[in-house]
Amino acid sequence: INHFVMVWGARSILMGFQPWVQNFGFPYAKRSQDMAIMFSGGEPSLRLLKQYKISYVAIDPGEKRDFNVNEAFYDKNFPVAFANQSYRIYDVRSVTKGP
Known about the structure:
The protein has helices at residues 4-9, 18-23, 28-40, 42-51, 61-66, 71-77, 93-96, and strands spanning 56-59, 80-83, 88-91. By secondary structure, the chain is an alpha+beta fold. Strand 2 and strand 3 (88-91) form a beta hairpin. Helix 3 (28-40) crosses helix 4.
């Protein structure tokens, strides 16, 4: 699927639709595990956001379904760049711009 952030904002994404990723031979297992950690919040999340140089985190119904999203962590620590009834995009560049 085409995530609206990638289509609308001309941004790359960390990982797309898993069956397609597998089909193209992309090693998705580690990245999927790291995404779960990033969505869970806390210090490990911050470390991985920085490691992958993430600028924005999109939380939508798919992420809520597929990951144990700690939206309270993102609400507390990052400004919301966009929100509607189903989607929230957090600006996490404050983490990735560090030394």
